Amino acid sequence: MSKTTTALLVLLLLIAKPAHVAAGPWEEGYAAYQRKDYTLAVEKWRVVAQAGKAEAQSLLGQMYFFGQGVKQDYPQAITWLRLAAAQGEAKAQFKLGAMHENGQGFTRDNMRAAIWYTLAAKQGHPQANDALQLVSAGLSPKESALASRLAQTCIKRAFKDCESVFSP
Predict the structure, then answer these.
(1) Which of 18-22, 61-65, 69-73 bottoms out in mean pLDDT, i.e. has the lowest?
(2) Distance between CA atoms of 112 and 151, rounded to whole angstroms?
(3) What's the CATH fold of domain 25-87?
(4) Of 48, 119, 47, 54, whose CA–CA distance to 87 is shortest?
(5) What is the DSSP string of 29-98?
(6) Can you tell me whether residue 22 is helix, strand or coil?
(7) What residue spans in the chain does CATH classification 1.25.40 cover?
(8) For residue 53, is pLDDT > 80?
(9) What is d(CA 112, CA 109) in angstroms, rounded to the nearest whole number?
(10) Confidence label for 18 from pLDDT (cuts 50, 70 and 90)
């Protein structure tokens, strides 16, 4: 290999892989969460969530739900989870279903739980089908059919303003 070729290869490697790549708030939040530094994770993920990243919004909602790094606050959890769910985030949709089913931040409502579980299941959430079957056991066939229809309407709307269609 000639000296020119070797020099070009070294130059390309230096350009292609900088010696120090700074982590962004998403990665910093993840690292903080892994260390159980939940306050820092919330701080970092809030930046990403406010920029509109659905996964960060969902995680922030979960942290408010469990009181990790913040005071437990169901209304704040619901706010962040709804933002993520409106972007099709299955984990947020599943959590909203569970919150409706268990009356956490909402009045218990198995119909709404079934709708959210249906949405999460349609997107492959691993626990949504089982949760949907359990909650649907307490619904009449008419209610189950309505929940399915309302979920389909939400899907057709690309998850935008879903809750406006939830009122039968």
Answers:
(1) 18-22
(2) 9
(3) 1.25.40
(4) 54
(5) HHHHHHTT-HHHHHHHHHHHHHTT-HHHHHHHHHHHHHTSSS---HHHHHHHHHHHHTTT-HHHHHHHHH
(6) coil
(7) 25-87
(8) yes
(9) 6
(10) very low
Residue 19: alpha-carbon gap to chain centroid: 33
| Measured CA distances, 25 to 37, 44, 97, 98, 149 (Å) | 14, 5, 29, 29, 39
How far apart CA 49 and CA 63 sit, in angstroms, is 12
Confidence of residue 155 (pLDDT cuts 50, 70, 90): very high
Are 55 and 95 in contact, with CB atoms under 8 Å apart? no
Q: What does the alpha-carbon distance between residue 156 and residue 108 come to, in Å, rounded to a whole number?
A: 26
Say how many C-beta atoms besides its own lie within 10 A of residue 108's C-beta: 12
Q: Which residue has the higher pLDDT, 15 or 159?
A: 159
Q: What percent of the chain has pLDDT over 70?
A: 86
**What six digits make up the tokens of 99?**
């919150």
Contacts of 65 (CB under 8 A, 6+ apart): 72, 74, 77, 81, 95, 99, 104
Residues in the chain: 168
